[in-house]
Automatic annotation (TrEMBL):
This is Sigma-54-dependent Fis family transcriptional regulator. Keywords: ATP-binding, Nucleotide-binding. It holds the Pfam family AAA_lid_14. Residues 153-366 form the Sigma-54 factor interaction domain. SMART domains: AAA.
Amino acid sequence: MSLSLIDAENTLASPVCALAGRAALRLALTILWHPQAQRIGEQFIAAAGSGDIDVNRFAPLFGGLAGNAQALGHRRIARDALRLRRHRDHGVSLLPPQSRMRVELNGAMLAGAPVRCTPEQVDAGLVIGLGGVVLLCVHWMDRLPQASAIAAVHGVGSAAIRVRELIRQVAATDLPVLLLGEAGSGKELAAQAIHQASARCRGPMVTVNLATLSETQAVAELFGADTGALARVGGGTLFLDKIGTAPQAVQAQLLRVLKTGEYRPVGARADQAARARLIGASDHDLHDGSFNQSLLRRLEALVVRLPPLRERRCDIGVLALHFMQAWSTRTGSAPELPLAFISQLCNYDWPGNVRQLGKVVQRALSAAQAGQPLAFDALVPGVAERTARVRLGQLSGQAVLDALEANGWLIRNAALALGVSRPSMYKLIGKHPAIRQIGQIAPAEIAAALAAHGGDTGRCAAALRTPSEALRRYLRRQAAGKLL
Ligand SMILES: Nc1ncnc2c1ncn2[C@@H]1O[C@H](COP(=O)(O)OP(=O)(O)OP(=O)(O)O)[C@@H](O)[C@H]1O
């Protein structure tokens, strides 16, 4: 049988890059957190196209696969709506309500002015806090939710739906599979799900972690006469974790298994049939030449990519709830975590992915149970070195310029849109070669720009490529006669 899923349409890289075209994208609002836990993961998926979406106590209606659609409903969500405006470039503006309801974007308070977020920011998921009670994720969907038998793989966004679809497709075949994704992104869970959904599910799944084994150990562990994994697994599934670290000799023997369906057990005189299905997993690209490329070609007959958690922020709520429920079942207690802490969970970039999220949730529940204060920085080792949400070094100069352009050159709103603090934004601006300090611009040039733009400071700041706040300060001081 020849079946290849190695094209952009069928492998999973991120919710958006697998799309046929952006025109098909729908803007979705997923409930990340709600006082009624059963509502976490409910979604409102807008019709394709443009148009504003108003979010208030009574609209829109959020639904899950099982239940009736209902509005957010909570009395602390204002009647006055937060308006989401979709733009043709797939950016989204947030127009805060007139009411005094607290609105947060990516963990920072939103003041009265609209904020425009770039398409890339929406791709990664915007985290919106409403009234101090509900958290929503605004993100794009390229497919509609559907019931799936792959229940162990939690998640409500396009990426999770796609992973479940791929697992189902892959499980229906008997070809080797390669699972790719960062550490903790769910590769072993996906391997288990493939095994469970396949015709081999009555046999065992045996896991061998090749990163921890020397060549001799790996050969014995895999090809040992009676105790080796291939012998033990029989017609089940052999999961080769960290396959990229397998010694060359082991790679050559695995290639032989895939080519001929046979292997020579350690110390044996004759070859033995290998009946197992092979699933390999790696957290790095194996095309760099150090990995046996013939083995790679056979392994990647089917490829499933598990995207990092920071690229599917809409799933953080349901995953956190899943870990909380597992903890409660285990311990028989159910301490509550404050919304501010959940908001930090939803805004962090999770270098250790779902595994790290699970550990942090467990630590937080233990601390809450013991009546200890919950400090995110203390519970997430290394968090101080990584700014929540965005590492400054990862922001390109173009991203900084785009955020300023999209937000009338207002530092405050551009910082909010980028998910960085204002002091960080000042640093980024200070070292950006294309952004000018107001003090470096000749007064005559400023006067000419003001005249050309009818005194509109936003457009004037854009034309001068200097922040609006600095231009306004300059004009105030000028009006007060200090610059004359
Ligand atoms: N979509 C998911 N739903 C529920 N739990 C998940 C999901 N993805 C990952 N997990 C959980 O996160 C933890 C880490 O997942 P897993 O061990 O499968 O990651 P991995 O990619 O194989 O990691 P590594 O590369 O470090 O071996 C496990 O406890 C797993 O059950």
